[in-house]
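Input sequence (415 aa), recorded before submission:
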Amino acid sequence: MPPGDPVKTTGPSRTNLLRLWLIRGILIVVLITALSWLRHFTDYELPWTPLWGLVLLVGLINAALLYRLWLPRAPGEAEFFANLLLDTAFLTGVLYLTGGSSNPLVSYYLIPLIISAALLGQAYTWVMAALVVACYTLLFFFHVPFELFGMGGHAGMNAHITGMWINFAFSAVLIAWFVARMARSMHERDAAMAAVREQALRDEQLVSVAGIAAGTAHELRTPLSTMTVLAGELKNEHPDLAADLDLLQQQLDRCDEILGELVSSASDETATEKSTLDELVRRIVDKWRIARPEVALDVKVAPEAQRLKIEYDTGLHHALLNFLHNAADASPEHVRLEAAGDAGQALLVIEDRGEGIPAVIADALGRRFVSRKDGGLGLGVLIGSASIERLGGSARLMDREGGGTRCEVRLPVSL
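Predicted structure, token format:
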């Protein structure tokens, strides 16, 4: 089977396969009615046994298709195309036994071609166009004569049949070319509109989160100041707790630093900076070890990371730290960070050995907020992905081979 057109954004569905089943059923009923009328109310002779056998065979196949429609698996393009081939073969058999290309039913060849143009890739459509034109042409020379549609040697009738063939071939080419392109344009338009709606929804959620974050930052200043003062007093009163209180003070200082960055980012006062990829990794690792000292981080930096320069802001720091937090929450015993160059871009990979990405949120992750009762992934990935995309990069989460999650962050390289 020829491959489908990769530009197609949607393929055949169970509903479309059901419609194809219904169209075939209608054709079978119409043929049974016409053949019964010819058999009992006219004197025309036809090869009745093979005709009825062909109709019965396709009727049984169509009945069996109901079981396929009952199955939950959605049909692929190849399966749908095979059903169109069945319809074409069935029509060719009926036409061969009933006068060939002189039978007015020959125009029905356009139906499977139109369906293919609307639902399948261009490769399938061009194969179908070539097939129906070839079948139409062969029926000129190979068929069982039928007196009702006989040409009787009349020159005008010969010209009429030839004109029908030319019109059919021209229509087939137009359908394969223009209808397929129109259908593809509609799919692309629908996909673009869906992407715009999704982007608007994500922006709306981010604006809402930004407002909440600004208010939270303001409210947290006072309790953080109080805890900082208390930590200093406790250190003076309990020297034996100095190590623990120093760690607590580091965490409080980090919280204060994060709030400062948040306020600065909200007021658009933070400029972008440029550094090499390995320098960025060192900064992220330093912040990580303060935030999560109990989690070991396996860091691997490729030699080319010392040459790759990237431009970023503090939003990238927060995004990468958030991805690391998610990895640590999923598998505290195994978190891995790798930095390298790939296809002219800076590549950062964060991996864990947790349970992987839940199927219920996999499609929406990073594109809109998804809520989970046990927390994690949803909001942080949404904000992180938006921060990375603002820098011209991309973030992609996928299941890791052998179990766990793999997060790939790609960033453009600065000159």
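Checked by second reader. Residues 140 and 162 are 9 Å apart (CA to CA).
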